[in-house]
Amino acid sequence: MVSLPATIVATVRNEKDTIVAFIDSLLRQSIKPAEIIIVDGASTDGTSEILEKYSKRDEIVLISQDCNIAQGRNLGISRATNNIIAVTDAGCMVTETWLKNILECFDQDPQPDVVAGNFRFICHSIFEEAVSLATFPPDRDETEAARYYPSSRSLAFKKSAWEKANGYPEWLFVAEDTLFNIRLRQLGCHFVFARDAIVRWRPRATWRALAKQRFNFARCNAQAGIGTQGYIINIKYHAAILVPLLLGLLSPWLMLLSVYPLSQHLRQNLLPQARQAAEKNNRPEMKWYVLSVMEFVRLVGIAGFMVGRLDRLTSKKYIESQKAWMGVGSLDELKI
């Protein structure tokens, strides 16, 4: 029997076309939240006016303030009157039992500090399917990432844990939820995974939109020092492939030196997930779609990482802010 009251906090900016479906999905929860707090980050497309109607009916608490995602989440959580905070984002669809499945986890003994919710994609094209399968492995539900690195589209935690963590890192434009997860682990918080607490959302629908998203992710990861070794390994593989190709301008035979690193890159980094995706969908051609998207994401990630590293080297604010927030200026100093 679920008995804990919970506050749902969500952020939004310019989601006029999806905001009604999103809010209605929160209102249809099988276990009603004690309150729903929506932080609108200064929308300009009519989203604010729609939210005002829900606010006037006392169905949501509306906060309107120009802010980034981390600032908006912190603002909403600070206003919450309950210790259990469930976080999601506009642009998603929350299943009716999402909150129920999360709250059931808080009834466990020992009680968790953090409940990692789950998610599924809503795909409208084969490209979107490929994006979903390329950016998240088909067996994600069985991995440690599902438990320890949940998206804040589907997450819950005790407000007391958020307070200990000093909230979300407000100096990051994106990737703030990844660093927040790491901070909670640094504090020794107890995580559990709620497999059936599902939020649905749509992946990027075009190459351009995907490039912008993954560039920003990689840039902010680099600013915070997240996943540095993975990016460096990716750069080494691509350098080992690219340099011989460029030397081939001097002598075509030198291009052959790229064959071995290219085959290793395909065998170790791309083909296993691409094949798994094709098997899961029972569509052999999906392997090539997924492989193409995976390589595209890696190339864009390299560009974003290099810009983010330059940001970190040329501006002291990233290291200083991180050190003030979590006590270390680099994640290499953490043993988690």
Structure description:
With 336 residues, the chain is α/β, with parallel strands linked by helices. It has two domains: 6-201, Spore Coat Polysaccharide Biosynthesis Protein SpsA, Chain A; 207-333, no CATH class. The chain is built from 13 helices and eight strands. It has helices at residues 19-27, 47-56, 69-78, 98-106, 126-135, 144-148, 159-164, 176-186, 207-224, 228-247, 259-281, 286-314, 317-326, and strands spanning 6-12, 35-40, 61-64, 84-89, 92-94, 114-121, 155-158, 191-201. An eight-stranded mixed sheet has the order 3-2-1-4-7-6-8-5, sandwiched between helices. Helix 5 (126-135) packs across helix 12 (286-314). It is globular, with a radius of gyration of 21 Å. The chain starts with 5 loop residues before the first strand and ends in a 10-residue tail after the last helix. The model has no long low-confidence stretch (mean pLDDT 94).
